[in-house]
Q: What sequence folds into this?
């Protein structure tokens, strides 16, 4: 693909009111951070458009792929730069159109004249270019109301021509809607859950429970790999690796086996909340979906919910596994998620977990595990924090 620069359009909704400058500034910062690994870019906003110009010949396809993952961008238009003369604009527009399949298509030209010293005004420029383009492609037809192809010409410091509008990631810029703490396992669901909340502009901080030596270093690496893939969308992220073995062994030792999984999940939620409080997290996120496994029945969800005061976001709650898998393939986490490393939840699973535990019996069971609050604090004190992403 040939593109000298990209023009990014954002959704209308987020533009309203006083939030616009904050929204725009965050989006610019996020784009700059995301493109750092590709090359040097000029990134600036003008008239509700963001301009992304490579300054040292960065690969256009790679740049586009990266921009497609930035939340807050509704559309991306790869544009070609040319001199501000009618002949040059014509030549560039013709080259752009040659890349399109024109058979039976209709088109129109739209012009924007930011540089008022340009001799033709916008409607006159559009009409002039329309005529010139037709002389090159006599079978093209003009349709000003509902064209298949819109040739855009913008007259600024230079002239820009573009014909393509590529769908962006949508959503809102990460960082414009606070911060949440995601319980990130190595499975399929939680990375998708994190992606969905980040799409609404929420910055993520991840917590992973590791049961060394029952879970291997490979299992930990897998979670970090998943977090790394997520950062293409969510921006950089810290992953708190929490040593969970001692807590699990205590639960096995002290509590009824049939309640093991739910008590373990309650301990995870409590720890996640401690991490959230320490790092400014305003909510917890999990990858749970109603009824998917024994620990995700309505009763179990209530039981895990009731030990924390922060809101718990479960964006996958009403989704089928198939729908979740589809998103995980789209965002590129699936292949890593299905690697067969054990998770701390799967190594100590009771044969017959209780699917309908009551909160009262859980509270009673946890009394047998007297000093758990202390152990939770110790686990957080012994966390390993790893930064992933830019
Ligand atoms: P996932 O595919 O996200 O692992 P799951 O279907 O395997 O989900 P569970 O194992 O019951 O379901 O876990 C439910 C949720 O609890 C996960 O989505 C995740 O948010 C959290 N969770 C589970 N295990 C861990 C872990 N080891 N570290 C951090 N969070 C975890
Ligand atoms: Mg899991």
A:
């Amino acid at each position: 693909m040939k593109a000298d620069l990209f023009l990014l359009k954002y959704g209308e909704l987020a533009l309203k009111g006083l939030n616009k400058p904050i929204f725009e500034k965050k989006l610019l910062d996020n784009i700059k951070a995301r493109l750092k690994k590709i090359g040097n870019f000029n990134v600036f906003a003008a008239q509700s458009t963001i301009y992304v110009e490579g300054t040292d010949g960065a690969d256009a396809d790679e740049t586009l792929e990266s921009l497609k993952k930035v939340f807050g961008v509704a559309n991306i238009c790869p544009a070609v730069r040319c001199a501000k003369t009618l002949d040059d604009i014509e030549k560039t527009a013709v080259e752009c159109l040659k890349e399109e399949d024109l058979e039976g298509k209709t088109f129109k030209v739209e012009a924007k004249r930011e540089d008022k010293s340009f001799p033709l005004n916008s409607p006159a420029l559009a009409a002039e270019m329309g005529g010139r383009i037709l002389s090159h492609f006599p079978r093209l037809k003009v349709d000003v109301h509902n064209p298949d192809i819109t040739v855009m010409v913008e007259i600024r410091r230079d002239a820009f021509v573009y014909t393509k509008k590529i769908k962006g990631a949508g959503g809102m810029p990460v960082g414009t809607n606070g911060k949440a703490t995601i319980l990130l396992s190595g499975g399929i669901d939680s990375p998708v859950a994190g992606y969905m909340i980040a799409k609404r502009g929420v910055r993520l901080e991840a917590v992973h429970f590791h049961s060394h030596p029952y879970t291997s270093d490979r299992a930990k690496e897998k979670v970090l790999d998943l977090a790394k893939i997520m950062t293409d969308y969510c921006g950089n992220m810290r992953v708190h690796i929490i040593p969970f073995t001692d807590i699990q062994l205590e639960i096995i030792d002290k509590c009824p086996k049939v309640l093991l999984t739910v008590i373990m999940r309650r301990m995870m939620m409590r720890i996640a909340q401690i991490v959230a409080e320490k790092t400014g997290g305003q909510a917890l996120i999990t990858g749970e979906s109603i009824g998917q496994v024994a620990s995700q029945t309505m009763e179990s969800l209530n039981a895990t919910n009731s030990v924390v005061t922060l809101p718990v976001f479960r964006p996958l709650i009403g989704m089928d596994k198939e729908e979740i898998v589809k998103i995980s393939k789209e965002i590129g986490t699936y292949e890593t998620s299905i690697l067969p490393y054990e998770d701390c939840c799967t190594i100590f699973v009771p044969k017959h977990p209780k699917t309908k535990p009551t909160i009262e019996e859980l509270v009673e069971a946890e009394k047998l595990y007297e000093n758990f609050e202390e152990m939770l604090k110790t686990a957080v004190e012994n966390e390993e924090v790893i930064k992933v992403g830019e």
Observations:
- The two ends are 26 Å apart (CA to CA).
- The pocket of adenosine-5'-triphosphate (ligand 1) is lined by residues 183-185, 187-190, 207-209, 268, 286-288, 292-293, 295-296, 343-345 (CB under 6 Å).
- The chain has a mean pLDDT of 92.
- The longest strand covers residues 73-82.
